[in-house]
Amino acid sequence: MSLAAHGHCLRGIVGRELLRFVHQRSRFVAALVRPLVWLFVFAAGFRMALGVAMTEPYQTYILYEVYIVPGLVGMIQLFNGMQSSLSMVYDREMGSMRVLLVSPFPRWYLLLCKLLAGTLVSILQVYVFLAIAYLYGVQAPAMGYVLMLPALIVTGFLVGALGMLLSSLVRQLENFAGIMNFVIFPMFFLSSALYPLWRLREGSELVHWIAVLNPFTHAVEMIRFAMYVRFNVEATLIVLATTMVLLALAILAYNPAKGMMARKGGPGGGD
Questions:
Q1: CA-CA distance, 194 to 190, in Å (whole number)?
Q2: Name one GO molecular function term (predicted).
Q3: Which of 61, 102, 150, 197 is most buried, most CB within 10 Å of its CB?
Q4: Where are the domains of the chain?
């Protein structure tokens, strides 16, 4: 297959995902409402719990919002990655996944295109959220919004590959919705998205070590450092390595000869 044909395939898959996102306006609203509620309500409650009066200097009570915004960015990507994988289960039940995977393009390339499409959608959501947070007063250095883009791409692939792997293990749409909640909430709350690791360690040594072993923690730290024009080498290497492993497992799982699709009767979900 020529390079132009591969490019046409990529445009088709990405365009389909973007059109689906545009037509599902409730999905876009939900993606923004969730982190905004945490930013406006949870952070305000946290300030009250700290006993920080609203009469204090603005910089004093905005510190927690500055800290959790990268964590909420990770939340957007985490939920979107699972949502994109949910659409894969739906496509498999409807049969459109079979049409995609029997095309002459390599299966790994098709899955990568699907991951890239979901990642681009999540990045669009992230920057809209960051624009609202900026108007609210949570502002990072201008260069930080540029430098965090590679971190967002890697994180999008991380959560997307995880969701894709899970989608290969589930046959019915209803079952995947339950698994999503079982995965999303532990990954988010047992991470440094809302509290720094040292604070978690003060509360529970066990929770601290679970957060350290959670790859989402390192994805959030990678985004957080990049947003404030710094580079976390350790977090980046961990996220890249985890992404490669999950991606390899997802591609293997969708291999009709070796993976879960072989044991489920192919991408259409039949026996």
A1: 9
A2: ABC-type transporter activity
A3: 61
A4: 3-264
